[in-house]
Fold each of these.
Amino acid sequence: MAKTILVVDDAQTIRHLTRFALSKGGFNVVEAEDGVQGLKMLEKSSVDLIITDLNMPNMNGLDMCRSIKGNERFKHIPIFMLTTESSQEVALQGKEIGIVAWIVKPFVPEKLLAAVQRVVGG
């Protein structure tokens, strides 16, 4: 059965690019526009990996990740940060929360797919 990946980004073009890259690898993709919506999608869908943006309205990526990692049901799900933010300080915060990969936009679809496959298989 195909693995499901939650893509959380306020930019529709990034969600589409990410969906396209992951679909080519045989993954199912569910989408959310911000951290609040991302948490709601987690309640509805069984997710194997989360790819989130950092800077979003309503709830940013780090706050969403803190919420996920603090929840017994979801804390085991690996998280990738896909962002324009390349600051080491912010990336370190992400690592402390438990983010497994920090990918800076613009991203290479094949590299993203390879990283996802390394973490969840498929």
Note: The radius of gyration is 13 Å.
Amino acid sequence: MSKIPVGVLGATGMVGQTYVSLLVNHPWFEVMYVAASPRSAGKTYAHATAGRRHLDGSAAAKNSLDTGGIGELIVEDANDVSKALAAHKAGRCTFVFSALEMAKEEIKTLEESYATAGIPVVSNASAHRWTPDVAMLIAEVNHHHTGLIPIQRKNRGWDKGFIVVKPNCSIQSYTTPLWALMQKGYEIKRLIVSTMQAVSGAGYPGVPSWDIIDNLVPYIGGEEEKSEMEPLKIFGSINNSGILVNAAGPEISAHCNRVPVSDGHTACVSLEFGEKKPSIEEVKKIWREFKSLPQEEHFPTAPDRPVIVREEADRPQPRKDRDADKAMAVIVGRIRPCTIFDIRFVGLSHNTVRGAAGGGILSAELLKHKGFI
């Protein structure tokens, strides 16, 4: 099977480099177009990323830069859609991954310009997460939301282009475990979640080292609102105009903190079920056995086990557990009764892989499987 040529917008940033790294040996996709800010345009990709966080440090990624490959691609200006369209027509860019780092409204307008030009966009940015006709995908949870794409195209008069987005990285460590329980018929009424979020999730311009070393910052602008609302869209249903948000719940109260961890978002969750309440052992069994479409169809980036249960009293831990199962699994532990609600647990996910580039690639694999790319 010949590989599908893809582009990466914002390719010189941290998430953009992670996309490139994960796609180096991907069996379905091949990076043939990279774009970034005007200051990087015109340089080779190897030159434009020199001195920055170097991909994932893997031998394959370094070899691709050192021996030609992706490193020799010329970085284009991401604001110039005509360059991407020319690559699209030349068979070098079937669709793009968006890891753009600019103002939200600028991203929104630019991504729409790509889709209008007929280039599908798989976005890591937050700009379109609450656009009613844009699907916000976690492939194991709401893969059926790809059915929103024809509605989006009809609404906007687009023929081949479309936009799908990923949710916020902070919700990855508990949304899939919640969904697994809901799929087994257990209503989740409400939960309280406290997140400890890695500095790599701060995006541009990041967190000053003086603020985070030997410290914890108990505020991340807009993060608590995203944590409380985005799962309701993911758990929602499709109507004729877009996503019908699941207003029935669960109710979520979030506390979001920035901590001195390089990668890996941790969430401490206490949740209350409806009338039907599983035992602790039943909860563990559901999580251990949970599989979804990406596992059933063996998508290349999908983890074999979407939820991994740890029994040790002091796990999960970011440094020890974030890379489990291609860094795409959610690791859960400390599953125990709650003195206020019903159960409590700790969840962990790799924010720049599962929560960003890896999750975006998995969404693209889902879209290929569904016939949209």
Note: The chain has two domains: 4-168+356-370, 170-349.
Amino acid sequence: MAEQDLDISTELQASSRKEYFELSKHTTLQYIIYAGMIVCVVAFLHMVIAMPLMDVFFTSFMHADVASDGEVLEYRIAEGAPKDEVVTNLFTNWGIVERIAGMENEPNKMRIARYLFNPTLALLPLILFIGVTISTYIVSFLPKSIGLLRQKIQREIMNMLDTISISLYGEHTDAEIMELRRRVIDADIRDLYDLAKEYKISVDEMKNLQGALLWQDATSPFESFIRTQVALQFYMRSYFSIQYANAILGMVYMGAAVLIIIIGIRGLKFIPSSEPSIILFALSLEFILLIVYAIMLIFSPKEDEREQVAMAGESGGLFSLFGGGSQESQARNAEVESLLKIFMTQPPDTKKK
């Protein structure tokens, strides 16, 4: 009889692990919708917001005219250089023309471009960052069948519930997971502290888990949309900041390398001052990468929480079945912390004082 009960318990636990495995598989449609959403949002932001704002900047603050409608302009790459003719266009080649009195009386005279500006190149990192952020929020709100991020968040919810259940019950049933869900959802702030102590996780993790469960159980589209921010915060804290810390830090260093090279080339006069688009691209790229890394650090687990994640990875859980929470992963996270201290030029023992 005991063996039969053990077989039933194991089968019920396997059902939760099967659900986690199914949530880990994404469809091509989900990726297509996410990519299409990014393209549409980025195109809208670029054409409707970013380019008009840049036009206003040049006309209002630089007191110049913007030629972007196919007009042919006279252009000199440097003072004393032979003149050249450039054809302007809306997306990649703006001519910034100085306002000269009396030019309106000579409509056939070719105007002189003071700067050549590529709005697509210069604004790409900033627009792409904003577009990905908005698209991620929208996709998290869509149904699971087409929402890539929604399925990822639900997968991490299942993983955390299963990890807690294993630490409490060992071999557990779906009924015990549902009871765990109910206790977390119904808990007030005092109960959250008690549950965090009982489940051996931090209070912040417990609050994030409760917010993610409330988002998952939202009954109206408006409630789901409002709670999506909390669900994304849960995903960032429990998965993204742990798994992609090295990759993002590496991109920050690569962005710094690109910036150094471009600034160096500009110092050698290989990039003319009248064509600043590539410089603005490098500056905005490094700026956005630093912002992304800062956001990741905000949602990263604290030192004591990292130790709990490592212990949870050793004890089991659905995430450990797919390589998460391993000692190798924890070692990589420790290296990220060391690199961050070097990057921020802080003494190694600053945190100990």
Note: The chain has 13 helices and five strands.
